[in-house]
Each structure stands twice: as C-alpha cells, then as structure tokens.
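pasting for ref. prot 1 ->
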Amino acid sequence: MPTENASRTNRLPEKGLPQDTIIQELEAKLHPDLTYSSGKILCSMCTSPHSFAKQVYRKYLEKNLGDPSLFPASAELEQETVSMLGSLLSNPKACGSIVSGGTEANIVALWAARNLAKRERGEVVVPVSAHYSFDKASDLLNLKLIKVKLNSSYQMDVKAAEKAITSKTAAIVGLAGSTGLGVVDPIRGLSEIASAHNIYLHVDAAFGGFVLPFLKELGYKPLDFDFSLPGVCSVTIDPHKMGLAPIPAGGILFRDAEMCEAVSMKVPYLAGGEMKQSTLLGTRSGASAVAVWALLKHLGRAGYAAVVERCLGLTWKLVEGIRRIDGLDIVAEPTMNVVGVKSDTVDVSLVFRELRKRGWAVSLFPDYLRIVVMPHTKPSHIKRFLEDLQRILENLRT
C-alpha cells in the first residue's frame, strides 16, 4: 500500500508546475533506468532509435491512422511502408499494417488464420520456443496451442509439427529468429507441410525480418523464411527492433488482400463515413508509420546491410571471447546477433546475478544466458563485458 506521503505526492497538483521543475523531477525519478548508450543493455531486442527517425516521429505526433479520412496521406504512406517491407520479404504486393509491435502482429495473424479456417476451438501448431505472445493470442482467440519439440539444432521439429496436425488445425507458426537463441525454424519444410494440408502458415520474424534478408550479400549462409516460400501466409516484422525505428513500430504483412480482409471490420462513425480497419487497435500512431517510411527511404538496403554487418561482426567477436574463458561455451553457433552462453562448471544464475551487480543486463534462461548484440553495442562494450565475465568466473571458482 502507498504511504500517506506518497499518495499526497501523486495527486494531481492544484496549480501546474514550471516545465523546468518537472524536467528536473523526471531526471531524478528516471535515473535508475538503464540506457542503451551505456552499452550495458545486452538483453534487449530493441535499441536506441535512429536520430532521423526520432526527428520525423516528433514532427508528426498528432497523426492518427485510426481515422484515415482525416489523415489520408499518412494512410497512403503506411501502405507504401508496407510495400517496402514486403519487398524486403520477397512480396512487394503484400497487404498489412504498421502496428504496436510483434505481440499485436502475432495476435492479428492468428486472428486472420482462425477466421479463414472457420474452425470451432481451432488449434495452432507452434514450437516450444515460440514467443509468449502466442499464448496471449490463443487465450484471446479461443485457440489451443499445440507445442511441439525442437530438433538438435534448437529448431522446430518438422516431422513432429506434421504429426501434430489434425482436422482442428487452423495454423502453423514458424520462427525466423527465436527469442532465446535467434534460431530460424525450417520454414521451407513448414511451407511444404502447410501447402500439402492447406493450412495457414505464419512466420514470426519480429527480430529476424531486418537481419535475414541481408545474410547472403554479407557472405553468411542464407535462410529461406519469407513470402518466397508459397506456403507462407503472413509475416511479423518489427521495425522498432533491428529496423532502428522508435517504439511503437511493429509490422504485420499478409500475402494478399484476401487474408488481410479476414480481420477487416467496418467502422461507421469515422469522419469520412463508414470505413474499414484491419488492426487490433483503433487509434494508431501515424507518427510510427511515417517514421518507418522515412527511415526505410533514408537507410535503404545498403544502409541496413551495413547495420547488420556491424552487429554480426561484433557477435562473432563476443563468441570468440566467450570461448576463451575457461568454463564457458556457447549453446549453438549463432544464426544472427543472438548468443546463448552456457557453463558446465558454474551455475549460470550465479553468473547472471554477478553481472547484474556490475550493471550488465543479460537474459537468464533455465540453463543459459542470452546476449543480444544490437546497433547500440560498441566494441568497447564487448571488451568490458568479457573482462567482467572473466573476473566473475574466476571469483565463482575460488
């Protein structure tokens, strides 16, 4: 329960305070928050937004995509943004929306799959490594998740996925960059299964969508995951992750307008008369879509490829450093800029605790630590992190 003093402090003031006073109070209250610029955030799949995107976002804050009749040019820019994202994912004719993030995008995808399948209490086949947003989606949409095992490469087991298909199956979900290890499921195999059984296939590429398209040109092994595979019906891609856009900026892309129409609803009261919306939210930030449009135009394919190249280069420096520390190893060869760190000699939860004491934010999974190397990460950050990691291991062994 809040104290009496706290309750008094949190009341709406009778008279407004000067802006400078409020800014000073905010600085003091928010000081405990970690910052991307410190380099110590090594667990987040988000990053500090690009300076140009922040500038554009601030300029167009009033725009609301929930009523495109008031902001028709913004709505048109959103569709241009979707087309650019679609071209990145091998389908410039894709239909979709800029949404709040990967969670909303995944919910909308399963919403469409459920409506298209027209099955009562349908089932969705997902890997056990699926993001928790699918648990939210199943609860909201009255769908049952059928979670299947992973293979030795931490990918969804394709044979297990096919065995899980029943007459109730409304969709299959594959990951193009798992939350835990950044692993890409065998989407080609899932596409073949989905096509053979006439089942909706959704790909969660919230993180991988801005990484995987550049692997081949950067000299890494390319991985099939997008609309180039005929069975893929929808893809989640988050510009506010490796796309460097301000939060909130997720993306849900459908192969064609028919799939998008499956979640379309008429809104009778908008300024332009009855119109349709195909998103979970009504009021939506137009600034987010405009900022993503501007950033895609500004960086272009070459700019994003350079961002990915830098992150992957630092990822492999991190991997090399971890392998030089006695008692540590990586869980699996990184597919992208996500690294799992394990130990046979110390409890990784103790390592996690000691890292946190030193200000480092990494993720703790049941038997490994997860590190994400994002655009805000610098070589000096990796160097300092490895030095602290070495000291922690030495102290834990003594």
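and prot 2 ->
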Amino acid sequence: MQALQGLDLLVAEGEMLAIVGASGSGKSTLLSILAGVDPPTAGRARVGEWDLLGMTRRERVRYRRHVVGLVRQQTARNLVPYLTAAQVVDLPLTIAGVGRRERRTRVAALLQAVGVGHCAGRRPAEMSGGEQQRVAICVALANRPRVLLADEPTGELDTETSREVFEALRTANRELGATVVVVTHDADVSGHVERTVAIRDGRTSSEVLRRTATSADGDDHVIAEEYAVMDRAGRVQVPREYREALELSRRVRLALEADHVSVKPDVEPDVEPDVEPDRTTS
C-alpha cells in the first residue's frame, strides 16, 4: 500500500500553511513522516539538514526531541491526566536536562503567550477543550522546535474555541519563530493562512495562495488564487469538476498555444465509413 506517491511539497522556513484533504488522502501519513514517527520507505524527505530516510534510531530521538513538535487531535494523547499544565509543559524540558530556573521561566512564558497562564495549576479535567489544546501547543513548543506540526488541532472544538487555538498557532509562528504545518479538513481554518495545499490520492493536487490587497477606496480585502501543482515528472491533477464538465477521461488532447497549454477531451470525429454495404443474401 503506497499512501504517498508523487507528492511534492516545499515549505519555507518561518512559513505557516495548511494541508487539506479527504480521509485517506495521505495527509496524516505525511505528518507522521515529518514528525519522525514513521520512517519513509522511498523518495526524499528532509527537514532542514535532517534526512528523514537516513537517520539512525538515536538521531530520530534527537530529531523528535529538538527539531519538531507535534500536537495531536485527541487532547488525551497530548496531556497527562495527573499532571497540571505547568508540570506537563515542564516535562520535556526536564527530560532534555534544562535547569530548574530556566524551566520555570520557559513554562510561564509559553502558557502566558497562548493565553492559558491561568491554567498553570490545573489538570486536564479542570480545563476546557480549547485550553487543553493550547496547553498541548505549549508542550510541543517547550524545547524550541523549528517546526510545529498540528494534526486536526480544532477537529473536536466549536467555532469560537477553534479560533482561540488557531490564534495560539499563529503566535507560535509569528512570535516564537516556529514553522507551522496544520493538517485539517476545516475550510475556516485553512482560510486563515496564506497558503493551503490540497492532497488527493497521495499527491499534492492544488494550492491556494492568499494575499491582502487594498482597493481604490482604501479598504483591505483578501484575494485567493488557486493553482494546480505540477510534480517533478510533469504530472498535473485536473480538478474533478473540470473533468466532469468537459467529460475528460483516460486520454486528453494537449495543444501548446502561445502562452498556455490547452486540454481538450479525446473525441473521435463523426465520420461515415467509406465502405460499400454488403449486398449478399442467403
């Protein structure tokens, strides 16, 4: 089973982007590879100077401890039920051998940065779902990772709470300097980032780039443009609605125009056969 095939993705340092796709499209597999949980079996996968295909077991532990932070959808997998928010954020710092005074300062700063400083002495059962996820973001950021990965971080939350969690991710990106990759099926979440990458059938199929423009009357508005993604082999996925509208299937006709490539359905011309009818009777 090849979960990912023909997937090309380049993320710039300091970027914040969303990866969207239907269930089974391969987005969670991609996140597991980037997090160092599942080693890839082929292709190329690099995060900074780290080659995810060639890491030893010891290097993989170091990579997961210091280079990436992971926030899972289920809050129960992010926190420890018998530890307070401050204690669970302190845990990865303790494991990394950070001194007590530095740990205390770091924990307080992280909780305050994402708006859950009041939860420092609370255990998960004493916090709301949104507070738990924001504490989970602090845990993932404890050792100052270069990359923060979030797998459906708002999947179990209401709209207002989702907004608070997303603001915490934005804080991690803009104020704490982490490159943030969010996997989500929530269109509202993906609409808040400048770049959204769609995955379909294990391949990157399209990207939406957003930019803010100012109109003639001085009002700012967001312009979103969708692009098809061409992989290294020159393959492009044509959106389903386009294929259905033009009845594209199996083969298509390509034509190189002056400034674009046209794609047309492969329709056989309606030609009468140039053959005399068989007049033989029995």
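The chain is about 30% helix and 20% strand.
The domain at 16-214 is CATH 3.40.50.300 (Rossmann fold).
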